[in-house]
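re: ur question from earlier - yeah i can do the single chain one, its not a big deal. heres the input i used so u can compare w yours
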Amino acid sequence: MSFMGFSPVLVWFLVGIVFLALELLLPGLIVFFFGLGAWSVAMLLPLVPMSLAVQLLVFLSASLLLLLVLRSFVKKIF
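and the output i got, formated as tokens:
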């Protein structure tokens, strides 16, 4: 499965970079965790083949879990 000839791992990695870049424009430390969620999918995808629906579910779950667990810690640093 590929998106316009690109590997899904590469697509999720680039989506993560876009979210992290957006955090510079939209301060509030929320978009940052969507970037980490995208990178979570990119790291998990080579190990476990997933459909697009499962990838999206993992992305949302990882983003929300990281937001809830790490936001106060990361906010202290930045």
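The chain has a mean pLDDT of 89. not sure if urs matches, ping me
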